[in-house]
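Each field is set out as follows.
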Amino acid sequence: MRSLLIQGEVDAAGLAGLLPSVGATVQTAVSYAFGNTRIALYVGRKFTFRSNDYLGILLLAASDGTSQRIDVSYAGGGAGFLGAVWGAGRDLEDNLIGVLADVLASRSLQYSEIRPEGGG
């Protein structure tokens, strides 16, 4: 999983095109609010020849209007040779983070990557 902390916010319309931009089909999209915190969730999938299976991809964004945290993760894709993903999931995450970084740069939004706890 990769996570970014953004100073500012990418709205739901800006987030909606991220999965298709890396070749993933959006299967579910939902957004809601808890008080001042807005949540957006996008779930998609992409077929990869490397794993000969579909990889699931998830983008979760939480924002209070001042800052935003975006988490990206993949799941599945182990039906190929010996049930291995062969790095396809990590590449899909990296591609999605790259597209998101381009969007942030085009909007002059500052961000930093959040390292997972435990150093993993």
